[in-house]
Write a structure and sequence with these properties.
725 residues, alpha+beta, Beta-galactosidase, Chain A, domain 5, 12-stranded antiparallel β-sheet, 4-stranded antiparallel β-sheet, DUF5703_N, DUF5703 domain-containing protein, 6hp_glycosidase-like_sf
């Protein structure tokens, strides 16, 4: 183990262990003698060739290490060339080789919860299997047990249900890697410590000196009850990597980048803030594309790019698997920010990961609706595991943390008993609307997700009618509800009712076959949705503000959910008939939410500024959010903010804001194309974005004007407007 070694982690979508941690497959170390990457090497350079999808590291004696991942097989190719003959050792390093209990803070990487409490057993991490095999190194993890789901079923009163009937991606989940090279053979097994974590290394060493090497790593993840057959398939697939060509992978990346781009101040130099904003916007797309072929959504709290937590904070001397907020708990409030910007980039293939997540758990969500409330609806909570069941800790957080007793009227079984998350059922509505808009944007066939759309929306109509009846004017009484995590026990939360109106309107705009309801039912449902509440601005009684709710009992977090009517729902904004000043007043003049602003993490201020046409505010916030990181080497790694590093929902929120500064499409029933509504005069460049109705928009930008505008189909050119007029 030397100072000039090259190390890289292997991460894969769906590598969930028994505790719903998203584990690394392992770490690879490349060591060479003579060493062209010594710490004092003046020739060292590292490049990400983002257009072609590969990385190089160069050192002395024209030594070049090239890394690329096949987009079809997820196989990893490592190619080493040098002017000098070298000895090479490729080490597969693993740190999960003994069964052990996770400590109270370390268990945050699991789905057992954010706190250790006596009612929840300390989770056990089970070891991987690793050994030399067929002249290579085989390392894999197989889930033999489902302790988390077993506990959830009991805790949440589901014991009468058959646990085997629940969708459970942790059950029999198997994942791992096989590393081999024709030029290397098994050597000694060694041990060491890296970044406070002990590891064992299985080393493949060179047979003789050479000036070029090729190493192949096959990866796999799938549920399996026949581990022997699973291993055989992995090794066979890894063997085929030798014949793979990089051309198809490069072609995939070229097609991906041709879909969409926003380039800002391309000639201004790397220190220019506008250039950095455009660059890191592209890097966000790159991070999302790295999981384009994965089955599961990219995680907001680091995605596939988490690294040794000690380098995030010395307070976390844990293994490379660690991240806050779990690797397998779906936190829709955060996840949505990664997927909304993919509409305008045309990355509908990547969006389908999130759509499939909800469709996969729908049988469980419907079972919960029937069991707890006797309704054939989807009961979708916030902070749900990838089974669709509420996170263990969050389901009864007030019991665990404060020893409180559930009020069966306010917090019936099936509803999270949690000051932050209780009655927070509407974040899934944003994914419903993403599905509808994906069809609106490019005629995506949404039939695979129609059931999720309908049963998710059914909750709000059927549940609240059953619980409360209707107002005298025939509208729903949406109580108890929640304005995000902030306004609790809310009555007609603005974020909920505005969202229902937008989502049902989008549904009715589509030519789509529905099964649970029909167009007549959804038209009636839309008429039952209450109006978005307004009130005199607290602290400024002469001004009218969008209200967070008609009423609420207490606040818990710090989100100005009245502004959800601007984004994501677009009820207030440029080109809409509603009085935009009500939303602007809610942001600037509502003293109750004056402290609920920010420029990082999951906050959305720059999006709201853009949609309200406030160019200066939007620009300042977007620059703060998307300029280069000063903490990490990769400029698009920031965090941990509220969550973890790299904070990908930080960049998702920034990407949405930048898009909305450049082009808005939500007004006039999604037909208007508004260019440069909040674009600063000092930014030039060019862009390509997608608009609804299979429309592509490309243009050059010079300050607050565009040139070479191309709108396809050309018939949509008449829908283009400019600025805030």
């Amino acid at each position: 183990m030397g100072t000039g070694d090259i190390l890289f982690y292997i991460a894969k979508s769906g590598a969930f262990d028994e505790n719903n941690s998203l584990l690394k497959l392992g770490r690879v170390r490349l060591s060479m003698t003579p060493n062209p990457f010594e710490i004092k090497s003046s020739s060292f350079e590292q490049h990400l060739y983002i257009n072609d999808g590969y990385i190089t590291l160069s050192g002395d004696r024209n030594t070049l290490v090239k890394l690329w991942v096949d987009m079809d097989t997820s196989g990893i190719h490592t190619e080493v060339t040098s002017d000098e003959n070298l000895n090479l050792t490729a080490s597969f390093e693993q740190w999960r080789l003994t069964e052990r209990r996770l400590g109270s803070t370390e268990q945050q990487q699991t789905s057992w919860g954010v706190n250790s409490v006596s009612a929840i057993p300390p989770p056990t991490q089970y070891p991987d299997s690793i050994d030399y095999h067929y002249n290579g190194v085989l390392c894999y993890h197989h889930n033999n047990d489902t302790p988390l789901t077993t506990f959830q079923v009991s805790e949440q009163g589901l014991s009468d249900a058959d646990p085997n009937s629940f969708f459970n991606p942790m059950k029999n989940n198997t994942f791992g890697a096989f590393m081999w090279s024709r030029q290397l053979h098994p050597g000694a097994v060694t041990t060491g410590t890296y970044s406070s974590t002990n590891f064992t290394a299985y080393n493949l060493v060179s047979n003789k000196l050479a000036n070029s090497f090729k190493i192949y790593i096959g990866t796999a993840q799938s549920p399996s009850t026949n581990v022997g057959q699973w291993v055989h398939s992995l090794i066979e697939a890894a063997s085929d990597l030798e014949a793979a060509s990089q051309e198809s992978t490069m072609s995939w990346w070229h097609t991906f980048w041709d879909r969409s781009y926003i380039i800002i101040n391309p000639d201004a130099g790397t220190e220019d803030s506008g250039f950095q904003v455009g660059k890191n916007y592209q890097y966000f797309r790159y991070m999302m594309a790295c999981n384009a072929k994965g089955k599961y959504p990219t995680r907001f709290n680091g995605g596939l790019f988490t690294f040794d937590p000690y380098y995030v904070s010395s307070d976390y001397p844990y293994t490379p698997d660690y991240r806050k907020w779990s690797g397998g708990t779906f936190t829709a409030q955060n996840q949505r920010l990664l997927y909304w910007p993919l509409l305008k980039t045309g990355d509908h293939d990547i969006m389908q990961q999130a759509f499939n997540f909800y469709q996969d758990i729908l049988p469980n969500s419907r079972a919960l609706g029937k069991l707890y409330f006797g309704l054939d609806v989807a009961l979708s909570s916030e902070q749900i595991d990838n089974t669709g069941l509420p996170n263990v800790y969050e389901y009864d957080a007030n019991v665990f943390s404060y020893n409180e007793t559930r009020d069966p009227v306010l917090y019936p079984a099936g509803i999270d008993f949690n000051d932050y998350l209780s009655w927070y059922q509407d974040t899934a509505n944003e994914f419903v609307d993403m599905i509808l808009q994906a069809k609106l944007y490019n005629e995506l066939d949404i039939s695979p997700w129609v059931a999720f759309v309908e049963y998710q929306l059914a909750w709000f109509d059927e549940f609240y009618q059953k619980r409360n009846g209707l107002e005298s004017n025939g509208t729903l009484i949406v109580y108890p509800g929640s304005g995000a995590e902030t306004y609790k026990l809310a009555f007609n939360s603005a974020s909920t009712v505005s969202g229902l109106r937008k989502t049902l309107s989008d549904l009715l705009s589509l030519d789509q076959a529905w099964s649970k309801g029909n167009r007549s039912y959804y038209s009636q449902y839309l008429s039952r949705v209450p109006a978005t509440p307004l009130h005199p601005c607290p602290g400024h009684a002469t001004l009218t503000c969008v209200a967070p709710a008609l009423n609420y009992s207490f606040t818990q977090n710090s989100e100005p959910t009245a502004l959800y009517t601007v984004f994501p729902w677009g009820e207030y904004g440029l080109g809409q008939k509603t009085n935009l000043s009500y939303a602007i007043n809610a942001y600037f003049n509502d003293t109750q939410s004056a402290g609920y602003h920010g420029t990082y993490g999951w906050r959305q201020d720059q999006i709201w500024f853009a949609r309200m046409g406030l160019t200066e505010n939007a620009t300042i916030n977007t620059i703060s959010r998307l300029t280069d990181s000063t903490t990490y080497r990769f400029s698009a790694f920031k965090g941990p903010n509220y969550d973890w590093s790299p904070d990908i929902n930080h960049y998702g929120s920034g990407a949405i804001g930048l898009q909305e500064m450049l082009m808005q499409t939500f007004a006039l029933n999604n037909t208007q194309i508004r260019l440069l509504p909040a674009w600063p005069s000092e930014w030039t460049g060019y862009f390509k974005l997608q608009a609804p109705f299979s429309t592509n928009v490309t243009a050059n930008i010079t300050g607050t004007s565009v040139s070479n505008l191309v709108v396809l189909p050309a018939s949509r050119m008449s829908d283009v407007v400019y600025g805030t007029d």
